[in-house]
Specification:
By secondary structure, the chain is α/β, with parallel strands linked by helices. It has 2 domains: about 1-65, 2,3-Dihydroxybiphenyl 1,2-Dioxygenase, domain 1, CATH 3.10.180.10; about 70-129, 2-Layer Sandwich (Signal recognition particle alu RNA binding heterodimer, srp9/1), CATH 3.30.720. The protein has helices at about 15-25, 50-60, 85-90, and strands at about 5-10, 30, 35-40, 45-50, 75-80, 100-105, 110-115, 120-125. The strands form 2 sheets. Strands 1-4-3-2 form a 4-stranded mixed sheet. It has a 4-stranded mixed sheet with strand order 5-8-7-6, covered by helices on one side. A hairpin with a 5-residue loop joins β3 and β4. It comes from Paenibacillus phytorum. Keywords: Metal-binding.
Length: about 130
Amino acid sequence: MKLSQVRLLVKNFDKSVAFYRDVMEIPLGFSEEKMQFASFKTGETKIEIFSNENMAEVIGEHNLLSEEESKSKFLLNFEVDQVDEFCARLKDKGVVLLNEPHDRLAWNARVAHLRDPDGNVIELYKHPL
């Protein structure tokens, strides 16, 4: 068995697609507005975006994610060539980082964190230090 994609269930499809395409600069592979589905090319594993509302309909649950649930259910981890440069581009686009690029000696990595429009945590990293 192998993981083929991670699917984010989002509240605002258009805003999330724009964030991952324009801000995070991930190439959009496919997008279907009517179905509210998009797939991004990230290497072997894809990131897909699907609206919460449509997924609730697919699986027959009307309240798939309640407002009381935590924002952080998982973390998307992206390796980038230069953490500081990538974060500078993000800031130019109005992104507020959760923390500035910093060295995590125990991880042998330079890292920074931010949230997407639905509050999902994104980690940017580069190995080795």
